[in-house]
Design brief:
The chain is about 30% helix and about 10% strand. The chain contains 15 helices and 13 strands. Strands 1, 4, 5, 6, 7, 8, 11, 12 and 13 form a nine-stranded mixed beta sheet that branches. Strands 2-3 form a two-stranded antiparallel ribbon. A two-stranded antiparallel sheet has the order 9-10. The longest helix has 25 residues. The N and C termini lie far apart (about 65 Å).
């Protein structure tokens, strides 16, 4: 036992004193201030400084974007029926890959390089359906840029000259754990990593002390997709904060009890905060405790800020119609995207939006019916967001990312007698971005004639992360966490060709 330490029946003298209110509460407070770039690491406990806060909540270089609106469509939309139309699918419809003049894509070395099945390869037939399935919708060049888009996007087509497409994305998970993979960069068989939103939160200071730096609207879509907004070893204080679009109850955990006044709740939070800080003295490396301290303080401040941020009552009728709030089919996506714009105005750094429910874009059957309906639910709201951001002068400082977890097969899915759908396709698909620091009306990369493989090196999903963080002023290779070594593929490479 160290000299000078007295023990009691329940605990050490140091613990007893801290529990009674005699601890150095400045240690915990210093850690909280350092998270916002207010205190230097030398002013805090090394344990707290290393485990709870980033080395410096400052950009690594000049930032082109202040905020990110990351729009994710769960289930895997068909890239060839949205933003990468392929005439060859119609020309060779009904034939097998080996009956076309093109190299059989299944025999390409890229197939195994970009295809990692959880099931045994000999029993997994996904992604290798050989009978070519024709496109289920028409397409044509759009805007002054002449970029081809399908007819399911009439509103977004009017904004095409603002968009920057990346048509040679690829990933490795051929099942819906790819929803996590596009946000974390890791296949489900590997050790998981923090999400892109958590890294942005970790690397940047706040623009508004009354709102979270990382807000989630409409998600996570299920309990097993929690990883898509999680912070893992960065600490729970960097995880996404889901917000409900109900001004009367956006934060159930922060609501006052019936009959409780504002002043009474304020005293309650202050008392809880004092208790938490006392405990933090004894347990300075407890990240969950430190996160709880920040959560209570932020929750109290958010009670006034969040309802105001998501209250649409002051929006004009024209704006409400722009986002489709006046139509049942577009209202859900429209409200979430309008809330995202309002949160950007309030200084939120990263807003992750799920405009559709879990897996609904997964079109194994009835692709035409499914995509016709689903495109109509998000087309107008997303186009409205781009138009609204531009009109308000926000697009030059906001990065919009529109993505899904993978594309869909050029071949007809034949499982269970399928006749009108496509299976999951990680080998090549399309995402688009718009706004701060990007070329406009631009297409980068391509898939082959059948839409099977991302050509060239293509871009693994962490290239999208690196590009997003770069525009926020962060170097993904410098965001490593003390004591944690990431793989080279986690760093990704900035897609320099898309930068203005």
């Amino acid at each position: 036992m160290p000299a000078g330490t007295q023990t009691y029946a329940c605990c050490s003298r140091r613990t007893m004193l801290s529990d009674l209110g005699m601890g150095f509460t400045g240690l915990a407070l210093g850690a909280m201030l350092a998270d916002d770039g207010i205190a230097a690491d030398s002013a805090t406990s090394p344990t707290i400084a290393e485990s709870a806060v980033p080395p410096a909540a400052q950009p690594h270089h000049h930032a082109r974007a202040d905020s990110v609106i990351w729009i994710f469509l769960s289930g895997g939309y068909s890239h060839v029926e949205t933003f990468d139309p392929k005439p060859a699918l119609n020309k060779y419809a009904g034939l097998t890959f080996d009956k076309t003049p093109f190299e059989n894509p299944v025999h390409s070395p890229l197939h195994k390089k970009r295809f990692r099945s959880v099931a045994a390869e000999e029993i997994n037939v996904r992604d290798v359906y050989p009978i070519i399935y024709p496109m289920q919708v028409g397409w044509k060049p759009r805007g002054d840029s002449g970029i081809e888009m399908t007819d399911w996007w009439p509103h977004l087509a009017q904004q095409v000259d603002e968009l920057c497409f990346v048509r040679n994305m690829w990933t490795t998970d051929n099942d819906h754990a790819a929803e996590n993979q596009i946000h974390t960069g890791r296949h489900r068989l590997d050790e998981q990593q923090p999400s892109i939103g958590a890294w942005a939160h970790y690397g940047l200071g706040t623009l508004n002390e009354n709102l979270p730096k990382f807000v989630v609207l409409g998600g996570p879509t299920r309990s097993d997709t929690r990883l898509s907004i999680d912070s893992l070893y960065l600490g729970p204080q960097h995880a996404g904060v889901p917000i409900a679009l109900d001004p009367a109850n956006p934060l159930p955990f922060g609501q006052r009890q019936p009959g409780q006044t504002f002043a009474q709740q304020q005293r309650e939070y202050e008392f809880i905060g004092r208790l938490n800080r006392l405990a933090a003295v004894e347990y300075p490396s407890d990240q969950k405790l430190l996160a709880r301290i920040r959560a209570y303080e932020l929750a109290f401040r958010m009670q006034a800020a969040v309802p105001s941020a998501i209250d649409f009552s002051k929006e004009t009728q024209q704006t409400r119609q722009l986002y489709g709030l006046d139509q049942d089919s577009t209202k859900v996506a429209g409200e979430r995207l309008l809330a995202a714009r309002r949160l950007v105005e309030q200084g939120v750094r990263f807003i992750q939006v799920f405009p559709s429910a879990y897996g609904v874009w997964d079109s194994h059957q009835k692709l035409k019916d499914n995509h016709t309906r689903l495109c109509a639910t998000v087309d107008q709201p997303v186009a409205g967001l781009i138009q609204d951001l531009r009109h308000r002068g926000l697009l030059d400082r906001t990065l919009v990312v529109f993505c899904t977890e993978f594309g869909r097969t050029p071949g007809l899915e034949q499982r269970s007698g399928g006749v009108d759908g496509r299976d999951h396709h990680p080998n090549g698909f399309t995402i688009w971005m718009a706004g701060a620091g990007l070329k406009r009306g631009f297409v980068h990369g391509a898939t082959d004639e059948l839409g099977y493989h991302a050509l060239g090196d293509g871009h693994y999903v962490t290239d999208l992360h690196a590009t997003t963080l770069h525009l926020l002023g962060l170097d993904n290779r410098r965001l490593h966490f003390p004591g944690r070594k990431r793989l080279e593929i986690d760093d990704g490479n900035v897609i320099h060709d898309v930068l203005a």
